[in-house]
Amino acid sequence: MNYTEKVMDHFMSPRNVGKLDTYNAIGEVGNASCGDIIKLYVQIDENNIIADISFQTFGCGAAIATSSMTTEMVKGKHIDEALKITKDQVAEELGGLPANKMHCSNLAADALHKAIKDYKAKNGIV
User: Fold this and answer.
1) Catalytic member of 17, 34, 37, 60
2) Is 60 in the active site?
3) Which is the catalytic residue, given 62, 73, 104, 111?
4) Which domains are assigned to the chain?
5) Is the separation of the CB atoms in 73 and 93 below 8 Å?
6) pLDDT tens, residue by residue, 55-114
7) Cα–Cα distance measured from residue 53 to residue 108, given in angstroms and rounded to the nearest whole number
8) What percent of the chain has pLDDT over 70?
9) What is the C-alpha separation between 54 and 51, in angstroms, rounded?
C-alpha cells in the first residue's frame, strides 16, 4: 500500500494528539468493519471559533493521519465553516489515500461534525 509523504508525516508525527484539558464539545465515531475509533475534543470560544482541538484515535495509519489533518484544517475556523469539511477534502489535503482507506478520512470528518453538533445542541444553536 502506497501512502503519500504527507500521510506518512501526519502518521509518524501527528499533530494535536491527546485529550484537551478544557473542551466544550466531543465527537466520537467508530467503524465496526475495520475497528477504527476516532474521538475529537474541541474547545469552541464565545464567537463560535474552534480555539483548540485534539484527538485520540485507535486505528490504522490512515485513521491517525486523517485525524491529525482534520484538526489542522479546522483550528481557528468558525464552526459553520468547519462543518463544510468533507472526507474528500481531508484526503485531498493529505495528497490522497488508497481507495480502501477512504473510510478512515470519512471517520475524521464525521467525528468533527458530531462534535460541532454536540456543541450546538448544548448551547441551543440551531
Assistant:
1) 34
2) no
3) 104
4) 5-119 (3.90.1010.10)
5) yes
6) 999 988 999 999 999 999 999 999 999 999 999 999 999 999 988 888 776 799 999 999
7) 12
8) 98
9) 11
